[in-house]
């Protein structure tokens, strides 16, 4: 019996995904160019706030930690890490991106041909709630998760789809769009967050209270080997199995598959409650602050924003 640290035998490429790290670094450089040197090409631009830059870097570090570090490899071995990965990706990183990416850049992307109509439809609160939570529940149907875990292309596409629908789901709460569109009030935002938690609960509950291990990729050696080939080169994987006697994921943990599955469900639920609690506090604090503003303060702020916009467009007259 090995331990979690035994995943070092899979090699540097499988543990640290250097190509994904390069993609993260490239994305970060492009972001700072878009919000710095190149921002003057985008209507309504403004200087990047220091807090936005810091939060974006934090998001990229978290993204690499979840999808490029040993956590990603462990998510194919131990179900608890899979659920940790899901919680951080979709319930933490995606909302944080709205605090990192300037609103003018998001608006510019939304206004592109063919994107605006799709975006406007899928960011309707009810549609956004049903789409993400429905896909999340479908993803954790045993037959579907096992199938996706053993097909690299389908797994990548479904992960991207979940990420996009998570953006749609969080947009009604955290967007600071200057575009003319309806916005939710503070109390409705709190209710919206609460409803997300309610819709996530059935999937977590089924995982926590299931009377048997549901996923073959975390219990069956053949299915696990197929799933591991997504992140470990086939030749290296076969050599390791032949020389080490590893017969399945149980080699790397002392937990039984049942305990691992239940722990994963609990991790998802606990992190969900923590993240949502922080979000509700943020929304309530902002709503309470806005409610205390006088009509004169609101008018003054609106005039200031109009003057900034007019000054920008005067540059091109």
From TrEMBL:
The membrane topology of this protein is:
Multi-pass membrane protein
Subcellular location(s): the record lists:
Cell membrane
* Residue spans crossing the bilayer: 12-34, 54-71, 77-101, 121-141, 153-174, 186-210, 266-285
Q: Where is the major localization of this protein? A: membrane
Pfam families this protein is in? Caa3_CtaG
UniProtKB keywords? Cell membrane, Membrane, Transmembrane, Transmembrane helix
Presence of the UniProt keyword NADP in the record: no
Cross-referenced InterPro entries, in alphabetical order?
Answer: Caa3-assmbl_CtaG, Caa3_assmbl_CtaG-rel
Its recorded name reads: Cytochrome c oxidase assembly factor CtaG
* UniProt lineage: Bacteria, Bacillati, Bacillota, Bacilli, Bacillales
């Amino acid at each position: 019996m090995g331990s979690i640290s035994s995943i070092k035998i899979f090699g540097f490429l499988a543990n640290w995904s250097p190509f994904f790290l390069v993609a993260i670094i490239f994305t970060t450089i492009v972001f700072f160019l878009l919000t710095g040197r190149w921002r003057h090409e985008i209507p309504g631009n403004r200087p990047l706030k220091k807090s936005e830059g810091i939060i974006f870097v934090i998001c990229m570090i978290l993204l690499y930690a979840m999808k490029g570090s040993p956590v990603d490899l462990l998510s194919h071995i131990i179900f608890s890490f899979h659920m940790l990965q899901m919680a951080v990706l979709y319930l933490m990183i995606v909302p944080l991106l709205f605090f990192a990416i300037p609103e003018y850049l998001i608006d510019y992307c939304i206004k592109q041909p063919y994107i605006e109509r799709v975006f406007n439809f899928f960011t309707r609160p009810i549609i956004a709630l049903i789409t993400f939570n429905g896909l999340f529940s479908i993803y954790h149907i045993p037959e579907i998760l096992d199938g996706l875990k053993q097909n690299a292309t389908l797994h990548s596409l479904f992960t991207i789809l979940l990420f996009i629908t998570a953006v749609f789901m969080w947009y009604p709460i955290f967007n600071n769009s200057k575009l003319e569109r309806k916005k939710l009030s503070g109390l409705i935002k709190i209710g919206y967050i609460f409803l997300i938690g309610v819709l996530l609960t059935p999937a977590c509950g089924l995982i926590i209270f299931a009377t048997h291990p549901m996923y073959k990729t975390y219990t069956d050696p053949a299915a696990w080997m197929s799933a591991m080939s997504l992140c470990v080169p086939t030749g290296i994987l076969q050599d390791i199995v032949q020389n080490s006697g590893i017969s399945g994921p149980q080699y790397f943990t002392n937990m039984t598959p049942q305990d691992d599955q239940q722990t994963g469900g609990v991790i998802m639920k606990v992190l969900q409650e923590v993240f949502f609690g922080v979000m509700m506090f943020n929304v309530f604090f902002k709503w309470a602050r806005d409610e205390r503003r006088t009509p004169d303060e609101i008018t003054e702020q609106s005039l200031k924003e109009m003057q900034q916009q007019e000054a920008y467009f005067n540059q091109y007259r």
